[in-house]
Structure formats: C-alpha cells, structure tokens
C-alpha cells in the first residue's frame, strides 16, 4: 500500500505482515469506534482479516493505554467462557512500530453504535430477539466476573486496596496531570464519591472489564455476543462497578455520554430487569447500584477530559472528532454523576 493513516507505519508493519503471513497486498481502515487506543482494520482482498491496536499518538506510558496488557488479558481469556477476539501476537519491536501493538484476527459481526445497528437484531418474540440479546450481554458480564483469575494466569492483576479507592485516586491524578483547563466539578464529585464509598469488603471481587457497554461488544446477526473488546481499563476489584456502568449508560441521556445505547422504548429491558438477571446468573447480591452509576459517570468525565486533551494536542491520529464537542460534555457528565449520587 502507498499510504496509511497516522499511527500505522505501512512500510515496517507491511514488512512484518509479509514475513509472518506471506501477504503483501492489503489496505488499512481506521475503526470508527474507540477514542483512546488507536484501532485499525487490515483488509485483504477487500475483506477484513486482522485488527491492529496500538496506544494513542504521543503516549508516554501508564496502564490506561497499555495495549500489551490488554492483549495479554484477551489472550488469557481465550479458553474461558468469555468470548474474546483471537490474539495472534503481541508485538513489542521498535523495528516494526515505535510502540507495542496487539495483532488479532478480525472477529465477524458488528458493534451496537447506532439505532440502525440495534435494528439489525430481530424484534421477536423468540429465542433470538432484542430482549434475548440484552440479557445475553448481562450473562456475558456475569461470565467475566466468574473468571478464576489465578486459573487463567491473571492473578498478578491484583492490587492492594479496593478498586474504587484506587481509581478515584488514579483518575483524579490523571486529570490533574494532563488537563489544560480548570474543571473544579471533577474535584467536587471526587470528594463526594470518596466520602460515600461503599465498604469494599461487602462487595464481590473479580475481574472487572471497566468499560462494559453495547459498543464494546461484537454481535452476531441474531444478537449473540461474539466477542467483548476494549479491555484497556480492566482491573481486579469490585465487579459491581461494571454493572453500575452498564446501567448508567442506559439511564444517562446520550447528550451527556455521547454514546448511543438501546432503550426500553426500543425493546431493551428495563434496568431493574437487567439487575435481576445479573443477580440470578452471577449469584451476587446487588447493592449500591446508584453509587456505582455515579462513579461510572465521574470516571467517564475524567476519560472525556483525557480525550479532549489528546484531540487538541493532535494525538488521536485520523479520528474524525471535534475537540470542542468532545470537551464540552465533561462538566455535564460530572454533574450527572453528582445527581445520581444524590439519588443513591
């Protein structure tokens, strides 16, 4: 190929692909989803064959964009009951690319990013319909939380202290480190969350995906989850943080999250039904969901601030996203978090 998007070195990666797979002719497309790590689809003979995932441009370290760690998690889950893409190789060779990257087989299917995507799943009623698809997402989440991290080789992901305690400290620190503007509401919500934090000893602990929502899954036409993707925020800790995030995405208006999700008006179950299903299949008693929803929106506000900073400094490659639009919702998200916390 003669040209490539920013962040993809066609010459060196092309040479690596030729040496590994004997393929010389390919095209590269930037995936339309993903505003953090950069993700590319590699097309061979007009069909998607592989996916390459790398840190954002200008990345200097830190676990949030550690794609080698993300790739290792997916590889470890390859033989588990959790559906993940097949990892071909995790490459850390500056002669191929100046940052580590994950090279994986393309997983067939589609993510749910828009009403048109959701409309592809049958209406039902029946075993393969929209409600079944939604409950399948909950079942897959429970499967993630059932993973024996020692058995799959991820026991070293354990850290001292509770997950929320660690992440409150981590995300606030990241905002303070990279933000180019003042966002006092971020600090205000942080303090309120820290003050009202549930006792981690009362929460089930396991592998928490960290960004579990419909556009981070790949679906078959009948609505089955073919794979869960975007494991960059995965950690070991209170798994109900995942459930709170999933529910918050359904209840907080899209104008704040900038992420479209199906609603009950479009055939998605009500949050209470999803919580009941999770309790049934996971065996975990669900509590403090409102708090976990608030925490999720605050974390999303912190992430959005990071996206905004990378966009204005030109470190998001060829992703077509307006910096001011990305940054405008940070304070609104934080206010949504405070509203959820006050209702909890």
Automatic annotation (TrEMBL):
A matching Pfam family: APH
Record's keyword terms, sorted: Transferase
MF terms in GO: protein kinase activity
Start and end residues of each Aminoglycoside phosphotransferase domain: 29-250
Residues forming coiled coils: none
InterPro entries: ACAD10-like, ACAD10_11_N, Aminoglycoside_PTrfase, Kinase-like_dom_sf, Ser/Thr_kinase_AS
PANTHER family referenced in this protein's UniProt entry, alphabetically: HAD FAMILY PHOSPHATASE, HYDROLASE, PUTATIVE (AFU_ORTHOLOGUE AFUA_1G12880)-RELATED
Name the record gives this protein: Phosphotransferase family protein
Source organism of the structure: Brevibacterium aurantiacum
């Amino acid at each position: 190929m003669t040209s490539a998007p920013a962040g993809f070195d066609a010459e060196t990666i092309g040479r690596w692909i030729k040496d590994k797979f004997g393929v010389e002719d390919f095209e590269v497309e930037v995936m339309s989803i993903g505003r953090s790590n950069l993700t590319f689809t590699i097309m061979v003979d007009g069909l998607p064959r592989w996916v390459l995932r790398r840190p954002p441009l200008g990345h200097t370290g830190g676990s949030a964009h550690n794609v080698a760690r993300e790739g290792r998690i997916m590889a470890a889950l390859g033989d588990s009951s959790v559906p993940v893409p097949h990892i071909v190789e995790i490459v850390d060779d500056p002669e191929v690319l100046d940052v580590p990257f994950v090279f994986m087989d393309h997983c067939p299917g589609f993510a749910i990013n828009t009403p048109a995507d959701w409309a592809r799943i049958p209406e039902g009623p029946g075993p393969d319909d929209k409600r079944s698809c939604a409950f399948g997402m909950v079942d897959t989440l429970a499967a993630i939380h059932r993973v024996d991290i020692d058995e799959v080789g991820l026991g070293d992901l354990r850290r001292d202290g509770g997950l929320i305690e660690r992440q409150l400290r981590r995300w606030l620190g990241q905002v303070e480190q990279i933000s180019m503007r003042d966002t006092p509401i971020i600090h205000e919500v942080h303090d309120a969350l820290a003050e009202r934090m549930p006792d981690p000893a009362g929460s089930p602990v396991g592998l928490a995906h960290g960004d579990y929502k419909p556009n981070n899954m790949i679906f078959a036409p009948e609505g089955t989850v073919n794979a869960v993707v975007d494991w960059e925020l995965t950690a070991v800790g209170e798994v109900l943080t995942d459930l709170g995030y999933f529910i918050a995405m359904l209840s907080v208006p899209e104008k704040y999250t900038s992420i479209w999700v199906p609603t009950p008006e479009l055939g998605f179950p009500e949050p209470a039904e999803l919580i009941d299903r999770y309790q049934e299949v996971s065996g975990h008693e669900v509590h403090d969901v409102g708090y976990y929803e608030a925490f999720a929106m605050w974390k999303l506000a912190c992430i959005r601030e990071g996206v905004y900073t990378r966009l204005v400094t030109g470190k998001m490659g060829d992703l077509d996203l307006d910096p001011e639009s990305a940054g405008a919702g940070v304070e609104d998200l934080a206010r949504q978090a405070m509203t959820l916390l006050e209702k909890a």
